Amino acid sequence: MRLLFLGCAGGRRVTFKQHRGSGGFVVEEAGTRIHVDPGPGALVRAIQAGIDPENIDAFVLTHRHLDHSADINTLIEAKTMGGWNPGGKVFAPEDALSGEDPVIYRYHRKNLDEVRVISEENIFNIESIKLKCAMKHQHHGVETYGLIFENESWRLAYITDGKYQEEMLKAYEGSDAVIINTTFRKPRELDHMSLEDAVTLLKGIKPRLGIIYHFGMEILRMGLVKAAQYVEENSGVKTIPAKEFTAVSFESGFRVEKIKLKNPLGFSPYWK
Predict the structure, then answer these.
(1) Is 271 inside any structural domain?
(2) N or C: which terminus of the chain carries fewer CB neighbours within 10 A?
(3) Helices (H), strands (E): how many in the chain?
(4) pTM flag (> 0.85)
């Protein structure tokens, strides 16, 4: 299994000033690709990395906020080539799909094979990968769900945006690797987690690898490597920072590498 990060931005300033990329991440296993939380610029980041959207099997949104969903319609259109090549699946909370202003347009859904509503403890099969909605998070009044991806060999937890809750320790237990959205250095009275929360989670869950992700300005000013070192030293769990175009392979001890961009400028090399 391989993770490929297409960004690591969190919060308004880092995302919408593009101080870091915000393309979400891709889970890959045995030819299956799942694009998770494709925020602003996700299509371009995917093209830079050499990922053809037509080869993505499913898209998953943890919640409807734009830093997690801005490119979802663009990617559906790219996946289906505007309906000429229908297929693919989408998994998203109810409030991202219904109401007066759904973030996933109804116009595009007809070209997909499947559109599924996620809610607590739902389990779905996406080719060789099992997707589980681990628990509902408290996050600014929108439906938000943490996820678990797994098969017979590995288990990956994605603890997305939200306020730290003690129930997370049970919901994400048994994971080999844990991605934690760590927007702040210290806890605040806001529905986002901090480095201190990441330490608590990793101490309790005890994965083989922790990955901090979705950084606000405080973490950028601190430095991503320094932030990961702080979490590792205080949790006792090997921890790395997610960065654009970083791949993590689930091999013995995990292998982390920066990929070489196939299309550095973000467009096809065939037209010069």
Answers:
(1) no
(2) C
(3) 10, 16
(4) yes
